[in-house]
Amino acid sequence: xxxxxxxxxxxxxxxxxxxxxxxxxxxxxxxxxxxxxxxxxxxxxxxxxxxxxxxxxxxxxxxxxxxxxxxxxxxxxxxxxxxxxxxxxxxxxxxxxxxxxxxxxxxxxxxxxxxxxxxxxxxxxxxxxxxxxxxxxxxxxxxxxxxxxxxxxxxxxxxxxxxxxxxxxxxxxxxxxxxxxxxxxxxxxxxxxxxxxxxxxxxxxxxxxxxxxxxxxxxxxxxxxxxxxxxxxxxxxxxxxxxxx
Length: 245
Known about the structure:
Number of helices: 3
Largest sheet: 5 strands, mixed, barrel
Strand order of the largest sheet: 2-4-5-8-6
Number of strands: 8
Helix content: 25-40%
Shape: elongated
Oligomer: single chain
Structural class: alpha/beta
């Protein structure tokens, strides 16, 4: 009844279905692996968000990237802003409104520098229009916020040019300020003393699980669909042969 499956055409069709089904199954497993990793990362971040603040130097270092277990740890750092290197991060929208993030290196008493994302402000859609940046507190400032790793990008994306930058990375400020620059940066939640015109502060990350669960189910559905489709076409071929014979 199904001897036609041994023909070259059907054998190649079966091989194709097996390869396709196996690939879809493996992609589904990969998505579920990513889901478990996302949940593990979120658990680390959640513990760090709830922990008491520590000095920034306890989790950030000038000689090595920030370890994953320290990402989004609450930190404090005290120093003086280097306003000569204050930089705008363009194309930072919030609730559909165009804006910029304001970066400023903070020179500490120990001579090292910590890059601080002071917050967000709304601007016009005209990138050439001047931006009236609210000044930070003068003199010594204590910043409380979250330590986060550098954003990844090409050198021209992380290096300030005419007071602007595309991505946030302390790598782009190395050599532009005196002393070593700690890797990563601090997203400020509070400045003490408080500035007269505060920026919109950063918010903690959204600790959702992402789309990996549904992507995994989708790939496994494709695998089942491929196998089911092969069975359907084989049955239809068998029925057609039986009716014609």
